[in-house]
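Appendix B. Chain record.
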Amino acid sequence: MSSKLHVVTLPGDGTGPEVMVQGVRMLRAACAATGTELEIEEIECGGKFFLKHGSRDWPEGAQERCAAADVVFLGAVGWNHPDGKLVTMKDGKMAGYSPVIGNRLQLDLYANIRPVKLYPGVSHRIHGKRMRVWEHEKVDMVFIRENTEGLYSGSGGILAPGGKPHVATDVRVITREASERVIRRAFELARTRNGAPKDGKKRVTAIVKDNVLRGCQLFRDVFLQIGTEYPDIEKDVAIVDAFTQWLIGQPEFYDVLVTTNMFGDIVTDLASVLQGGMGMAVGCNTGDHHAMFEPIHGSAPKHAGKDKVNPIAMILAVREGLRWVGGRKGNAPLVAASDQLELAVRAVLERGEPLTYDLAGEERAAPMSKVGDAILQELEARLA
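Structure tokens predicted for this chain:
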């Protein structure tokens, strides 16, 4: 068992640093209770860093520092100019591209795993209101999104004769190799789960647009080929546009879902509605040797510095990161502590207070720091 843990944190912009503070509190508590020596290396990054330094969105050598860490945690990136326009670099990429997309590509974090689970005490967010439409047991699925190619492969450009942009292209790249490994990860994950809430069947759904797109036809074919190796798991293929209404209408049918990069980005944001909103949604960027964990909400500059936003997605990202790195390092107590962190979150949610505005409404809203205090208190009691 390894009792040392080297963590890189990338707080980023806006509310990113604020939620990171809450996540790090949980991280420190878990490591202290398990006798794990913790080293935290914080790296500035994002739009504000770019505006300050003028040429980069994170420091020289930051990529190598992330690669050397046992696990990486990301807050959120993205900052706006006073006129409201997003801060971008000279190549047109968002300032914050390097720690997010750059890490995914350079560290080969090919599987973006996004659990969608509705906890007791949390209601759905439908047409701006909190709606108790389904029991919490009916929403428990995991999306696996291919994370290194597709529309985020970086291929394309803008044709601008005379300096005036006329044509823009984004080339979607889908390869057999990348499809195979992310699809196989989905089937392997399904074998470890209890099946879909509706019928208990272990099921993997491929989300594609194979009636139009050639890349999706390849992805579908690879899915069906690999599926023959898993006769114990039901195979399901869904066209993405139809899937969006099935997702909202019958979430209990779904267990594990796998798809390409852009589709995965979009449908998981939609799925967050089923778990109480983006403040509850976690993204696990994982590869064979490295991993980076993050809340999938944005930096929300308008809320920055107000102690307002929901820290639970960041806290649950720490939970997922602890479970991943604890497993890799043979640190069973750290894995057990990660489970206790989820139970601590669950206890606060079931109690119904304190919760931030997105879960409790403006009248009953508690500050983010108070939510963090309550979860930390629960965690420390469970780890004592």
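Further analysis of this model is presented in Appendix C.
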